[in-house]
Amino acid sequence: MNWTDKDKEYVWHPFTPQSGLREAINIVRGEGVYLFDENGKKYLDAISSWWVNLHGHSNPYIATKISEQLNKLEHSIFSGFTHPGAVELAERLIKHLPDNQKKIFYSDNGSTAVEVALKMVLQYWHNKDQSKTIFIAFENAYHGDTFGSMSVGARNVFNNAFENLLFEVKYISVPTNENFTEVKKQLSDFIKQGTVAGFIFEPLVQGAAGMVMYKEEHLEELISTCRENNVITIADEVMTGFGRTGKFFASDFLKNKPDIFCLSKGLTGGFMASGVTSCAGFIHDAYVSEDKTKTFFHGHSYTANALTCCAALASLDLLERKETQDQIEMITLSHSSFIKRLNSPRLKDVRMKGTIIAFELNTAEHTHYLNKAAPEITEFFLKKGIILRPLGNIFYIIPPYVITKTELEEIYSAIEEFLK
User: Fold this and answer.
1) Cα(215)–Cα(194) distance, rounded to whole angstroms?
2) Where does 64-319 sit in CATH, by number?
3) What are phi and psi of 365, to 5 degrees?
4) pLDDT exceeds 90 at position 271
5) Residue 366 above 80 pLDDT?
6) Pair 237, 272: CB distance under 8 Å
7) Which sequence spans correspond to the domains of the chain?
8) How large a percentage of the chain has pLDDT more than 70?
9) Separation between Cα atoms, residue 389 and residue 25, nearest integer Å
10) In angstroms, what is the C-alpha Rg of the chain?
């Protein structure tokens, strides 16, 4: 059976132009940091398969836990019912989240985790009989592909076809040392209009924007301004959560904690689709009422699926081990050392935060997702047996935590060869 031909005939892949399609590589198994195609060729997964895989492919510990769960409970309705996995996971996540976080709401992916957060905020003000409907977000933000999450993202190639249907959002620049005074003024000016419901941000690292990074002290002040003016803050930690920035959550770098967290991707270690939205106690309190119209009427068929909760609990088990934390530190130190030895005129910028390192190429074309450098980057590294999916002229490493120094060096050496 020719799976590649059948794929081309029947399957529509995400974020993939439908003209001039390159044949999809048929992956048949995974082990550790590697994926293997039907011909036995192995690929080093340097981006954790879209940032989700924390502990390596087919991790035996997580696989065993899911297998055991399959014989107990695969799924049950979650309205009016519960199960031990959902309760335990909520309790353990709350212990890792800041002290202000009190409730966990389950969904099924990063976009819906954000969608839930936006609806929570809008209905919070509705339940308080206050007309606040405007969100503030960073320029070039990406928060997902549902309509609410698209609305708070940048207006770009991802959502041009839907722009007229998206709700109004005010955008502020990503803060730098040079522009921070102006950014604070932008935020304050929007808040003064009196209808701002919330401020949503990817803390410290904007993923799909090209791994754009900014300082925690700047975000601290913006959150503080929001708190002083009764604006709810939402941390989209879908990509930055679960150790990616060197701490458990990127918000752990902050003293001023966000009111709402959105989690997904690494939540289950890459095994199952799941999303979580956590909130501060005061937000949940606005829904506690004898007035049934103040109920949060939102849910998903697979809310708190027992298998996804099991996978997340197993992933947390591994994350909490000293060995994993040591690996995160090793990756961070290795990235730092690699940056010091890089010296190439092809590079416009190199930036890193924890286990995330990004390389921005000098190109004549303006930086964006459709930059013509992307196919060159992709094909070069695929020939080397390395998966590095670029964001236009920006490519990056976000490896599984089980990667070794030798495997990291293989990636670094290939990057040096590419830059020559």
Assistant:
1) 28
2) 3.40.640.10
3) -75, 140
4) yes
5) no
6) no
7) 3-58+321-419, 64-319
8) 100
9) 13
10) 22
